[in-house]
Amino acid sequence: MKTITPITLLFVSLVVILPSSQTLASETLAAHEHGSAHLDIAIDNNVIAFRFESPAVNIVGFEYHPNDEEEKTLISEAKNKLSNFETSFEFQGEPNCTVVRSSADWVSEHSAHDETASEALEAEHAEFVVEFELQCEQISNLTAINVPLLALFPAIDEIDAQVIYIGGQIKQELTSDNTLINLIK
After folding, report:
1. Is residue 172 part of a domain?
2. Does residue 61 register a pLDDT over 90?
3. Is 69 a member of any domain?
4. Do the domain assignments include residue 1?
5. Got the DSSP string for 114-171?
6. Residues 97/135, Cβ–Cβ less than 8 Å
7. Which position among 72, 106, 108, 130 has the lowest Cβ density within 10 Å, counted as fewest Cβ atoms?
8. Which region among 69-73, 78-82, 102-106, 113-117 has the lowest average model confidence (pLDDT)?
C-alpha cells in the first residue's frame, strides 16, 4: 500500500479546495487589481498543477462582454496563447514533463440583477483562468520555473506566485525584471 506523504495530502487538498472557473466568477471577480495576476503551483510526486488568474484587462485590454468580432478574436487569440504551456512557462533542469490537462477560460459576471443591461455591461468584470496539469518522469531534475507571461502580456505589472512542493512553500512577486521561481534553496 502506498504511503500518503504530507505533500501529497497538501496537493490533493489544494486541488480539491481550488474553486472551479464558474464558482470563481461569482465569488472573486469584483475584487481584482488591474496590472496584477496570481499564479499557484503545486508539485507532488510526478505531478505539477498550475493555476493562473488575471483580470482580462491585463490580457486583452478590456473586461466587458465583447462588442464585436475584433474583441471576440482578441479573446480567442489570448486563450490560444494562454493554453500553450511552452509559451507560458519554461522549466529549468529537464524534468521531462507532459501536459495531461490544460484549460484557458474567459470568466465574467454581470453586476447586480436590477441594473439595466448597459449598466451591467459597464460594471462587468472578467478574468482569464488558466490551468495545467503535467505528469513528469524526472521531477527531481526540476530546479526552477521561468514565467514569460510578463513578456507576453506587458499590461501585467506583477504576478503574485505561490509554490507548494516537497521543499516547502515559496511566495514570490514576479515582475518583468524577475520572472524566475528558483526551487533550489
Report:
1. yes
2. yes
3. yes
4. no
5. TS-HHHHHHH-EEEEEEEEEEEES-GGG--EEE-THHHH-TT--EEEEEEEETTEEEE
6. yes
7. 72
8. 113-117
